[in-house]
Amino acid sequence: MNVSKGVAQSIVEEMKKIINQDINYFDTNSTIIASTDKSRIGQYHGGAKKVIERNNDLIIRYDEQYEGAKKGINLPVYFENEIVGVIGITGDKEEVEKYGQIIQRMTEILIREEYIKEQESIERESKRQFIEELLFRSNSDEKTLLLRGELLNIKISIPRVVVVARLLDVDDREALLTPNVNKSILKIFRNNIDKDLQNLIVQNSTDFIMILKIISQSNIERIINNIMENVKRIYDGKIFFGIGDISNNSKEIKKSYIEAKKALDLAVIYNRSNLIYYKNMDIGLLIDDITKESSDKYLSKVFNQMETDQIDEYMLIFSTLVKHNGSINKTSDELFIHKNTLQYRLNKLRELTGYDPRVLSDIAVLQIAFILYKLKK
Predict the structure, then answer these.
(1) In a domain? residue 153
(2) d(CA 185, CA 234)
(3) Do 325 and 255 belong to one domain?
(4) Distance of alpha carbon 116 from alpha carbon 110, whole angstroms
(5) Which of 98, 142, 183, 185 is 20 to 30 A away from residue 30, measured at CA?
(6) Quick one: three-class SS letters along the chain?
(7) What pLDDT was estimated at residue 177?
């Protein structure tokens, strides 16, 4: 194993905080690759060469006793019973000898921790690539996926369900998260599903995609509720979930993902429930069968006189109105506008589309139009 310069430098800097002596790390070529005395980085060290050759500690009693060496102590660093480098403490023998074994052991522990992190990162990246192929590539071979899954200890042919989550800001727009907030939220998702190694997660743009092993519906909902509660503690916005049907192979997992996305889109449009199952979709199931040509004609008929920004604005007003079952007072309160202003905008929507959101028969027409518009984006 090769210890990187970055890892070695962080180790020597941490060690100096403990003993307040200059510390060096040498690679197996006896070159100083990290040091709290930056001027020494890159230099050859004859003492380190002796440590590697003899496989033993070395006290250097005076400067240049060995080429490029200063007085101090140098000790071999082991990883899985092999020397991977040498750690050195600069100073008088009486000052540094007492720290030797402590620094050696702590260095080995930190190297092992970095190795574990690196392996976890490699495994996570391998899983991410596998999940993306599983969900997004239409020409993936089932046998190849099964084999790759086995290598990653992922069993495709067990009952699974895909759950897709999305965060919106306070204005019902897709959330633009800072890297730190995004990392914290992703950690919340992982903490709630990592108890079972067959549960998988990947982030795709603003969506968090979970592929969960089926235990029970209540277990899935418990995971989702825990995620919602924890996300609310660090994010002042909304989070929605769509859940696809149960799958038992790679093709069905793709199908479950598509279903979960459609359920999620409907949850966002309705803005009434944080969670929608594809199997429980009502009008959304009918819309799912509408062709693109029919959808475009329908949207052109209803929104012909409206610009995109107008449709977005009125979609929020309409979905809030539907959420509150047509209550003007509750809708105006949630949107922070006067009820007369709300009535004016509803009248304007009727003028632009020809359909009145306060008339029962027209509500269905507008609802379908807004859903089709949202699904098209």
Answers:
(1) no
(2) 8
(3) no
(4) 10
(5) 98
(6) CCCCHHHHHHHHHHHHHHHCCCEEEECCCCEEEEECCHHHCCCECHHHHHHHHHCCCEEECCCCCCCCCCCEEEEEEEECCEEEEEEEEECCHHHHHHHHHHHHHHHHHHHHHHHHHHHHHHHHHHHHHHHHHHHHCCCCCHHHHHHHHHHCCCCCCCCEEEEEEEEECCCCCECCCCHHHHHHHHHHHHHHHCCCCCCEEEEECCEEEEEEECCCHHHHHHHHHHHHHHHHHHCCCEEEEEECCCECCHHHHHHHHHHHHHHHHHHHHHCCCCEEEHHHCCHHHHHHCCCHHHHHHHHHHHHCCCCHHHHHHHHHHHHHHHHCCCCHHHHHHHHCCCHHHHHHHHHHHHHHHCCCCCCHHHHHHHHHHHHHHHHHC
(7) 85
Q: Which residue has the tokens 């007003």?
A: 317
Q: Which of 281, 301, 317 is the last residue of a domain?
A: 281
Last residue of a domain, one of 281, 297, 326: 281
The tens digit of pLDDT for each residue in 278-304 reads: 988 876 666 767 888 988 999 999 999
Tokens matching residue 341? 């202003």
- Residue 217 dihedral angles phi and psi, to the nearest 5°: -65, -40
Range of the domain at 167: 158-281
14 belongs to a structural domain: yes
Structural domain contains residue 151: no
In a domain, 146, yes or no: no
- Whether residue 164 sits in one domain with residue 95: no
At 241, the amino acid letter reads F
Confidence band of 206 (pLDDT split at 50, 70, 90): confident
Global model pTM greater than 0.90: no
Cβ proximity of 319 and 269 under 8 Å: yes
